[in-house]
Amino acid sequence: MTGEAELARIGSLLADRTRVAMVLALLSGRPMSASALADAAGASASLASAHLRKLVDGGLLVVEPAGRQRLFRLANAVADAVEALLLLAPPERVTSLRAAVRGQNLRRARMCYDHLAGTMGVALAEALADRGVLVPDAHGYTLTPAAPAVLAQIGVRIERLEHRRRPLARACMDWSERRHHLAGSLGAAVTSRLIELDWLRLSEASRVVRMTAQGQRGLGDWLQVDLAGAS
Questions:
Q1: DSSP structure class, residue 90
Q2: 145-171: b (≥16 Cβ within 10 Å) or e
Q3: What is the CATH number of domain 7-89?
Q4: Which alpha helices (DSSP H) does 164-230 contain, by range?
Q5: CA distance to 68, 123, 132, 207, 219, per residue, from 229 (Å)
Q6: CA neighbor of 190 nearest in space, from 132, 115, 83, 111
Q7: pLDDT digits over 156-192, tens only?
Q8: Where are the domains of the chain?
Q9: Rounded CA gap, 116 and 219, in Å?
């Protein structure tokens, strides 16, 4: 293979609002059926099917069998690429109160594929730094000797993450906050554990994340910070 990468092909796939809506819906990190993606994009079943075929053929989505249905997810590295592109995208025009509320909720707390983003995600990363768990560096974050004990308090075991192929603690620039939140295998593990503890809850068919009353207390006790009031 010679020549430059064919970036224009990716651009053409993201030049349609229906396809973009489907890709953004999959930033929740949960595989979704064609019908669920059609609903998320406000498209008919036949139109959604045609768009999904293009996204799969273009390498942005992967389709997997799940019983009698097929589920779609983002291909490797697509989530990071889309989140980076969101840094360049102009703000979406708000046309209704519903859209305004949804935008506020997304900015407050959302899934960036498998880790927490938004105001709350940034506040979590900064609280971990304040507790002496993380130290920002040129490559993302370095874990301190205190990290294993602090993270074990909520059931996250560093030794189970260190040998994975993906980076352990990566800094991901948050498109809405323009500050970093925690990604990598540690970001995913912490977010997953907070959901298991019912401190965070995923919204149905949405990337929006909500903190529970139990989570506000638990995170306050663990990190000595009010993430619900983070700004």
A1: P
A2: eebeebbeebebebeebeeeeeebbbb
A3: 1.10.10.10
A4: 184-196, 213-223
A5: 43, 10, 21, 20, 12
A6: 115
A7: 999 888 777 788 999 999 999 999 999 999 999 999 9
A8: 7-89, 100-229
A9: 14
